[in-house]
């Protein structure tokens, strides 16, 4: 049976109350990307960046998976082949919605990372400037999040899955951030059927065989069933 590879973005969590990045009133409306989502921004003002991620961690902690997350979990359970979810999201709503195979390419809000020794641990609810790494004691703890200019996680594994994809679906992502925006081309090269599910056509919509438009909580369960 065909392998299904699903790429998700902020749009799938929007109806769980988590803001998207680039929609009107989205996260970047209140912050400049270079201030809160780059290693240079963190070096300049770690308190601002910790504050941004502490607020997001608290918001995500109170969010519940929606019908789109649970539909994908159902697909993973019922599809006779493999279903791999690659998410750009740093929330854990796929997992709390019942999904089992989820690759977090941009990290997670629940993780802390030592910028010195790369040790990883569970982030406290509030991270603060100068917090020591439990392994090397350096005061270089940061959120375990992939910022602009950094290499997204698990790329070899993701490209291997894309090379074997029979079906590729992109859900709730604007297609503006690479390398995720180019996954559709990897899937096409592998001979996969491609479908985009989004509120509005993304910048890469013309690359897909099919586009299904609407809120994720409506179109994803319909696509799965
Ligand atoms: C709904 C909905 C509803 C709303 N239902 N839908 C060319 C090639 C390669 C790289 C580059 C390149 N050009 C530039 C780069 C570098 C850069 C980049 O892409 N810049 C662009 C701005 C041009 N990329 C990087 O630096 C990345 N690293 C890298 O490239 O390393 C080198 C490399 C090269 C080649 C191969 C491998 C590696 C790192 C990117 C890190 C991104 N980090 C962020 C922030 C951290 C996480 C966090 O704080 O949460 O990740 S940026 C932000 O954007 C976040 C997201 O994961 C990411 C994607 O956003 P997403 O999910 O698409 O959200 P939105 O808001 O943009 O879109 C939401 C969509 O949902 C919209 O379409 C809505 O319509 C829709 N929607 N409500 C359904 N109810």
Question: What's this entry about, in short?
Answer:
Belongs to the sirtuin family. Class III subfamily. With 225 residues, the chain is α/β, with parallel strands linked by helices.
Strand content: 15-25%
Q: What value does the Rg take, in angstroms?
A: 18 Å
Mean pLDDT: 96
Q: Helix content range of the residues, please?
A: 25-40%
Q: Trace the largest sheet across and list its strands.
A: 3-2-1-7-8-9
Q: Quick one: how many beta strands?
A: 9
Which outline best applies?
globular
Active site: 106 (proton acceptor)
Binding site for substrate: 53, 56
Binding site for Zn(2+): 114, 117, 133, 136
Main location: cytoplasm
Topology:
Blueprint: E1 3-8, H1 27-30, H2 33-36, H3 39-44, H4 46-61, H5 67-78, E2 83-87, H6 93-96, E3 102-104, E4 107-114, E5 120-122, E6 141-145, H7 155-163, E7 165-171, H8 183-189, E8 193-198, E9 210-213, H9 216-224
Parallel strand pairs: 1-2, 1-7, 2-3, 7-8, 8-9
Antiparallel strand pairs: 4-5, 4-6
Helix pairs in contact: 5-9
The chain binds ligand BJW.
Characterization of this structure:
32% of the residues lie in helices and 21% in strands. By secondary structure, it is α/β, with parallel strands linked by helices. The protein folds into two domains: 1-18 and 65-106 and 151-225, TPP-binding domain (Rossmann fold, 3-Layer(aba) Sandwich); 30-62 and 110-145, 2-Layer Sandwich (SIR2/SIRT2 'Small Domain'), CATH 3.30.1600. α8 (183-189) links the parallel β7 (165-171) and β8. Bound molecules: ligand BJW. Residues 9-11, 14-15, 20-23, 26, 37, 88, 90, 106, 145-152, 155, 172-174, 176-179, 198-200, 202, 215-216 line the site of ligand BJW. Ligand BJW binds at residues 9-11, 14-15, 20-23, 26, 37, 88, 90, 106, 145-152, 155, 172-174, 176-179, 198-200, 202, 215-216.
């Amino acid at each position: 049976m065909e392998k299904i590879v699903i790429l998700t973005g902020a749009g799938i969590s929007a109806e769980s109350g988590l803001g998207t990045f680039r929609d009107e009133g989205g996260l970047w409306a209140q912050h400049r990307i270079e201030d809160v989502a780059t290693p240079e921004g963190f070096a300049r003002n770690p308190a601002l960046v910790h504050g941004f991620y502490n607020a997001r961690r608290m918001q995500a902690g109170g969010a519940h998976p929606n019908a789109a997350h649970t539909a994908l979990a159902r697909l993973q359970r019922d599809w006779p082949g493999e279903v791999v979810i690659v998410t750009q999201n740093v929330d854990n709503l796929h997992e709390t919605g019942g999904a089992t195979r989820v690759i977090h390419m941009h990290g997670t809000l629940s993780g802390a990372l030592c910028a010195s020794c790369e040790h990883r641990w569970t982030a406290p609810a509030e991270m603060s400037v100068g917090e020591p790494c439990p392994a090397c004691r350096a005061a270089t703890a940061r959120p375990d999040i992939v910022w602009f200019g950094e290499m997204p996680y698990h790329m070899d594994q993701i490209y291997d899955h894309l090379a074997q994809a029979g079906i590729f679906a992109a859900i709730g992502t604007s297609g503006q951030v690479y390398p995720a925006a180019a996954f559709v081309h990897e899937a096409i090269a592998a001979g996969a059927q491609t479908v985009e599910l989004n509120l509005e056509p993304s910048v890469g919509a013309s690359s897909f065989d099919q586009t299904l438009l609407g809120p994720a909580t409506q179109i994803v369960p319909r696509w799965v069933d």
